Amino acid sequence: MTAGDSWPRLTTTQVSSADAVAATAAWDPGAEHGYHGELSAMLISAENLQAKIVDLARAVAADHSLDSPPLLICVLKGAVMFLTDFARALPIPSELEFMAVTSYGSATSSSGVVRILKDLDRDITGRRVIIVEDIIDSGLTLSWLLRNLATRGPAAIDVVALLRKPEAIKVEVDVRYIGFDIPTDFVVGYGLDYSERYRDLPFVGLLGEHIYR
Ligand code: PRP
């Protein structure tokens, strides 16, 4: 019996384009953060993100059975906001590691051929590893990462992903904890960028077409 047994099971929230709150002449979702007229809508508010992160953290903690703390692996850069909020919401101790990878492909889609820019600083043998991802788009990056980390002898590998685009999946990956299923719209904010901008927004928004077209 763990403290988590009394918590409700995690459910992935389905978000559609119809849930987006469109910008108006009187309300610009990015303006408070200096992005004027660049976002067309807010898709997931900061409050809803934070509430979901608490649910994800409780679900992960409820499933933790090893004596050693889970090792949270943040895949830079997009997952950094999620990692820091997730680690702080976890009701058990955790340890942090960072990896940076780059995938060959166009600016907007990955090819699945991945190169490590920064590797883990330690051995993960016998540890429960939790990959903390901001978004699963094609699933190619994650699929490669799971295969790579599996060769290093961890006790278990789980994935917690804040967002998933089910309609963009090219390769199925086993992901135990997913916050939101979202449409294939161009999303930015809360770690997600377009040309390195918008990562600093506390919510997930839709980028105006005039910015990327
Ligand atoms: C994003 C995101 C995931 C990956 C998902 O990273 O953080 O790691 O793409 O895409 P996939 O499922 O199609 O592989 P990106 O390569 O854009 O780098 P960043 O995190 O530095 O923005």
Itemize the secondary structure elements and their pairings.
Elements lengths: L12 E2 L6 E2 L16 E6 L1 H17 L8 E6 L3 H10 L5 E11 L4 E9 L9 E9 L3 H11 L5 E9 L12 E5 L5 E2 L15 E4 L1 H4 L1
Parallel strand pairs: 1-9, 4-5, 4-7, 7-8, 8-9
Antiparallel strand pairs: 2-3, 3-11, 5-6, 10-11
Helix pairs in contact: 1-2
This protein binds 1-O-pyrophosphono-5-O-phosphono-alpha-D-ribofuranose.
1-O-pyrophosphono-5-O-phosphono-alpha-D-ribofuranose binds next to strand 4, strand 7 and helix 3.
How would you sum up this structure, described in words?
It contains four helices and eleven strands. By secondary structure, it is of the alpha/beta class. The strands form two sheets. The protein has a seven-stranded mixed β-sheet, with helices on both faces. Helix 1 packs across helix 2 (80-89). The model has no long low-confidence stretch (mean pLDDT 93). Bound molecules: 1-O-pyrophosphono-5-O-phosphono-alpha-D-ribofuranose. Residues 75-79, 103, 110, 133-142, 193 line the site of 1-O-pyrophosphono-5-O-phosphono-alpha-D-ribofuranose (PRP).
Which key features would you list for this structure?
213 residues; binds 1-O-pyrophosphono-5-O-phosphono-alpha-D-ribofuranose
- Helix count, per DSSP? 4
Helical percent range? Answer: 10-25%
What is the terminal-to-terminal distance?
A: 53 Å
Low-confidence parts lasting 5 or more residues at pLDDT below 50? none
Strand order of the largest sheet: 1-9-8-7-4-5-6
**Overall radius of gyration:** 17 Å
Gross geometry: globular
Portion in strands:
25-35%
Helix- and strand-based class? alpha/beta
Query: What pattern of helices and strands is seen along the backbone?
Result: EEEHEHEEEHEEEEH
Q: Which small-molecule species are bound to the chains here?
A: 1-O-pyrophosphono-5-O-phosphono-alpha-D-ribofuranose
What's the overall average pLDDT, rounded? 93
Largest sheet: 7 strands, mixed
- How many beta strands in the DSSP annotation? 11
